[in-house]
Amino acid sequence: MAGKSSEPMMVKGKRLDGRKTNEMRPMKIKMGVVPQAVGSAEFSMGKTTVVAAVYGPKEVHPRHMMIPDRALIRVKYDMLPFSTTDRIRPGPNRRSKEISKVMSSALEAAVYTKKYPATVIDIFVQITNANAGTRTAAINAASAALAHAGIEMRDLVCSVAAGKADGTVMLDLFQPEDNFGEADLPVAMMPNSEGITLIQMDGDLTKKEFDESMKLVTEAMPILYELQKKALINGEASFEGGKVK
Fold first, then answer.
1. 23, 158, 214, 239: most buried, per Cβ within 10 A?
2. Helix 134-148 vs helix 94-108: angle between axes, to the nearest 10 degrees?
3. Which CATH superfamily is domain 15-232 in?
């Protein structure tokens, strides 16, 4: 949320990229994109593209981080320097550390960690192109990569954001809406149990706007679930974009 734009975000009932408020960007998943990893996936949502690679379960280093009765889920989220037009300093920054932490929590809820005691499951996430929704795209990529690695899971984790721009609640913000909108609400869920594993809010929403945002997000989850599931079966899958329900 960088401040209000002088240009309208909605024109004749359509967003600047031609979508309606309840429509998602095109999406694509491809499995096994990092051959040396135990499991991996590339996930794209509009122009945002993410690669996730899973290593483990394996011995924990440093040893003091070991949890005797369960696995440690460790995420490293990183935006590559060429992924955005903004200048990015090499190495982890405060934002990437924060996203790594919330991703770990969001994914850990779905993993049967007690089946892998005293081990670590490392998930490396790289944003290769950023056009809003990087953390939600990263969660989708990481969830698919965990399943591809054969890690036992309660459910897949699916993630998308809703938000508000020009006073209008909408699903799956893209760059101008993310930059100049009034609110962003990324959510991650396990669709089969409807358990929420992540919910964050940047900006302000009224109770009515929050409920409307959550309705949009919840209606999008079956699309994301089927996309991951089809990719795991067939090696890749895509959604052409549009209305989710």
1. 158
2. 50
3. GHMP Kinase, N-terminal domain (3.30.230.70)
User: Rounded distance, CA 10 to CA 13, Å?
Assistant: 6
**Cβ–Cβ under 8 Å, residues 56 and 146:** no
Tokens of residue 122, six digits: 């490392």
Query: Domain residue spans in the chain?
Result: 15-232
Whether the CB-CB separation of 158 and 228 falls below 8 Å is answered with yes
| 115/37 Cα distance (integer angstroms) | 20
| Strand positions, DSSP E, the chain | 10-11, 14-15, 23-24, 27-31, 39-45, 48-59, 72-79, 119-129, 158-165, 168-171, 183-190, 195-199, 202-203, 236-239, 242-243
Whole-Å CA distances, 3 to 99, 135, 142, 203, 230? 22, 20, 31, 10, 39
Residue type at position 84: T
For residue 111, give the DSSP letter. B
pLDDT digits (tens, 9 = 90+) for 184-229: 999 999 999 879 999 999 999 999 999 999 999 999 999 999 999 9
How does pLDDT run across 139-170, given as a tens digit for each residue?
A: 999 999 999 999 999 999 999 999 999 999 99
State the DSSP string of 135-187.
HHHHHHHHHHHHHHTT--BSS--EEEEEEEETTEEEES--HHHHHH-SEEEEE
Query: 91, exposed or middle or buried, with CB in 10 Å at 0-12, 13-18, 19+?
Result: exposed
E strand or H helix at 223, and its extent? Answer: helix 207-234
**pTM reported for the whole predicted model:** 0.93
